[in-house]
Amino acid sequence: KSKSTTTVDIGEKTDIYIPRLNWTPNANDLVVMRLNRNQNNLDILYANPYTGDSRPLITEKNDKYIDQSFLDDFTFLDNGNFVITSERNGWSHLYLYDNQGFELAQLTDGEFDVTDFYGYDAINKVYYYQAAAESPLRREVYFISQDKKKQGKVSTLEGTNRVVFSTNFKYYINYYSSSKTPNFI
Q1: Distance, C-alpha 178 to centroid of its chain
Q2: Pair 138, 179: CB distance under 8 Å
Q3: What's the burial of 157, exposed, middle or buried (CB within 10 Å: 0-12/13-18/19+)?
Q4: Is 59 left (phi over 0), alpha (psi -120 to 50) or beta?
Q5: Fewer Cβ neighbours under 10 Å: the N or C end of the chain?
Q6: What is the DSSP letter of 184?
Q7: Nearest partner of 138 among 162, 110, 158, judged by Cα
Q8: What is the largest CA-CA distance in the chain?
Q9: Distance CA 46, CA 74 (A)
Q10: Per-residue pLDDT tens for 135-174?
Q11: Long-range CB contact pairs, 20-29, < 8 A, 24+
Q12: Own/partner pairs for 97-104, CB < 8 Å, 24+ apart?
């Protein structure tokens, strides 16, 4: 609206990537993802869109590289908290943070990879995700509460399940396939 340009402070280093820019849900801050050249150290910054000043939110490190899915799975919830996918314990799992960057909970754990995050159902207070928990060759859909008292499996078919939820998480469409069954809904 003001037709002005503001330069955001992204730090002193110049040999970096900026793989994603997003707005916080309230649009008060710009979320800047700053990735080093080796792509194994990612800093997430909040930047003031009026002054350009930035402050670190979280840092994600990996011995090899930061998986591209991490960048896309960074999901803000309606309450300002956010969920990330991290491989910090050797497996891809979901972590919940408050809007200031403090870790509130590791939502999922175990010797399996979370392969997609679908969102948070505020009414039932559960997080929906896809995982390869039963076999690396299959994908199942699960839900879990922050305190882990409510958890379970949504999908019932053995194979690859991918769902699309309604906005209130009351309904979903399951896209399913297996080695013997082509993709169907």
Answers
A1: 26
A2: no
A3: middle
A4: beta
A5: N
A6: B
A7: 158
A8: 58
A9: 14
A10: 999 999 999 999 999 999 999 999 999 999 999 999 999 9
A11: 20/71, 20/72, 20/74, 22/74, 22/76, 24/76, 24/80, 24/99, 25/76, 25/77, 25/78, 25/80, 26/80
A12: 97/58, 99/24, 100/57, 101/44, 101/56, 101/57, 101/58, 104/146
The upper half-sphere exposure of residue 2, i.e. CA atoms within 13 Å in the direction of its Cβ, equals 5
Residue closest to 116 by CA, chosen among 98, 135, 133? 133
Measured CA to CA in angstroms, residue 25 lies from 74, 81, 155 at distances of: 12, 10, 30
Nearest to 144 by CA among 185, 100, 114: 114
53-72 mean pLDDT = 89
Q: Which long-range contacts (CB under 8 A, 24 or more apart) does 7-11 make?
A: 7/52, 8/32, 8/47, 8/52, 8/54, 9/47, 9/52, 9/53, 9/54, 10/34, 10/45, 10/47, 10/54, 11/43, 11/54
Pairing relationship of beta strands 30-36 and 103-106 according to DSSP bridges: unpaired
User: Residue 47, SS3?
Assistant: strand
Each residue's pLDDT tens digit, 97-119: 999 999 999 999 999 999 999 99
CB 107 within 8 A of CB 146: yes
Q: What does the pLDDT read at residue 173?
A: 95
